[in-house]
């Protein structure tokens, strides 16, 4: 067996999550956000699978991320939106492959109209996130550009606090959006990310843009959705070691064995996406039960405690689950003080990816 870590993605579980989201927001259209390589899970395979399952709108952050799939999506009658706007790319980077930029400012709207003519674009209205999007003060100027030929086909905004269903900012943002969009006369609107899908029908408009929930993590602090866990991130046990009371483990000797026992070294470290802040903070799952991470996570390996396992030596070359169906990524994220988004997108380049349920 290879000593590399492995990420196995169950494409049917992602499709089931997509179906759940689509049913939750129906009759609105459910798009799929597959930016950042589908949150570390593989945008090409996931995008193709969701296209086959009926998804017709995809969001990426950059034109380059969309390149491997743009033609297939267009052929199937789907659309590709680019969230980061023109972002210093040339207009041809979009028009050559039919990408729809999400214009985030008056400058971008002006540039698009001048260089892309009547090619379709989306417009992002900032309603309180203060990250990307048009401030209200520029609404009239963009409406004037529409008179001159700017072709806006989608209008959107983005929630700052949608994972807190009771937060009054959600309602406030919907109200600001509702006050501003009519003057643009665009029939297709969206504001909801994954958590927004669970805020009720007045957050759905004609389209929703979930990312996170497709990949399994619970998006909302308010309710538990019946989402499947599609990821299995695991590393091989490289060595099982007998240890004696008083010995220490790893850099900085941050763990001391209180009794004689067993440890194992697994072949994944912080270069592979096991954050160093998990050192001495959580466990992995191996041989049917949990095993604490002991000592500091190293670059290429991590040490775990097998003292409470029945037959530790039998676990040489077993695989340890870092996160997956037996340990959700949320559990590890909480132990690390990071968000599930951050943990998923950290999986490093050495990790081998395998897909279950692939159609091709
Ligand atoms: C990333 C992103 C999304 C998806 O958010 P999730 O919380 O992952 O569902 C939707 N809209 C915009 C503008 C985004 O940047």
TrEMBL record:
* Pfam families noted in UniProt: Ala_racemase_C, Ala_racemase_N
- Keyword Isomerase annotated: yes
Reactions that this protein is recorded to catalyse: L-alanine = D-alanine
Q: Which residues carry this modification: N6-(pyridoxal phosphate)lysine?
A: 35
The protein's UniProt keywords, in alphabetical order, are: Isomerase, Oxidoreductase, Pyridoxal phosphate
The active site consists of 35, 251
Please name the InterPro entries in this protein's record.
Answer: Ala_racemase, Ala_racemase/Decarboxylase_C, Ala_racemase_C, Ala_racemase_N, PLP-binding_barrel
- Identify the pathway: Amino-acid biosynthesis; D-alanine biosynthesis; D-alanine from L-alanine: step 1/1
Q: What is the required cofactor set for this protein?
A: pyridoxal 5'-phosphate
CDD domains, alphabetically? PLPDE_III_AR
Q: What class of enzyme is it?
A: isomerase
Provide any one GO MF term from the record: alanine racemase activity
Q: What is its EC number?
A: 5.1.1.1
Where does the Alanine racemase C-terminal domain start and stop, copy by copy?
Answer: 230-356
Q: Which residues bind substrate?
A: 131, 299
Recorded hits in PANTHER family, A to Z, give:
ALANINE RACEMASE, ALANINE RACEMASE, CATABOLIC-RELATED
| Function summary | Catalyzes the interconversion of L-alanine and D-alanine. May also act on other amino acids.
- What's the family? Belongs to the alanine racemase family.
Task: Return the NCBIfam families for the record.
Answer: alr
Q: Which HAMAP family match?
A: Ala_racemase
**Protein name (record):** Alanine racemase
């Amino acid at each position: 067996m290879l000593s590399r870590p492995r990420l196995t993605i169950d494409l049917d579980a992602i499709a089931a999550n997509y179906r759940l989201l689509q049913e939750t927001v129906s009759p609105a259209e459910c798009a799929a956000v597959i930016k950042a390589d589908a949150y570390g899970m593989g945008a090409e395979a996931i995008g193709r699978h969701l296209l086959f399952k009926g998804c017709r709108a995809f969001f990426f952050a950059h034109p380059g991320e969309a390149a491997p799939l743009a033609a297939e999506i267009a052929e199937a009658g789907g659309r590709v939106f680019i969230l980061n706007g023109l972002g210093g790319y040339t207009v041809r980077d979009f028009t050559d492959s039919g990408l729809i930029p999400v214009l985030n400012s008056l400058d971008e709207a002006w540039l698009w109209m001048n260089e892309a003519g009547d090619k379709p674009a989306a417009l992002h209205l900032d309603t309180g996130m203060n990250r990307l999007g048009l401030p209200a003060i520029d609404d009239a100027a963009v409406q004037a550009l529409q008179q001159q030929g700017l072709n806006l086909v989608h209008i959107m905004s983005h929630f700052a606090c949608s994972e807190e269903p009771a937060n009054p900012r959600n309602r406030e943002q919907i109200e600001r959006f509702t006050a501003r969009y009519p003057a643009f006369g665009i029939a297709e609107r969206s504001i909801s990310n994954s958590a927004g899908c669970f805020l009720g029908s007045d957050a759905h408009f004609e389209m929703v843009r979930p990312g996170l929930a497709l990949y399994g993590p619970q998006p909302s602090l308010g309710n538990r959705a019946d989402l499947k866990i599609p990821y299995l991130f695991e590393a091989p046990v490289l060595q099982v070691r007998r240890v004696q009371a008083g010995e220490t483990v790893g850099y900085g000797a941050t763990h001391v064995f209180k009794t004689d026992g067993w440890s194992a070294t697994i072949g994944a470290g912080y270069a592979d996406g096991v954050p160093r802040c998990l050192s001495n903070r959580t466990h992995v799952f191996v041989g049917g039960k949990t095993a604490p991470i002991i000592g500091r996570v190293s670059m290429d390996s991590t040490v775990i405690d097998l003292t409470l396992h029945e037959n530790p030596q039998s676990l040489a070359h077993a695989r340890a689950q870092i996160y997956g169906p037996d340990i959700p990524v949320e559990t590890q994220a909480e132990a690390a003080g990071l968000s599930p988004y951050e943990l998923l997108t950290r999986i490093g380049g050495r990790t081998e990816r395998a897909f279950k349920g692939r159609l091709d």
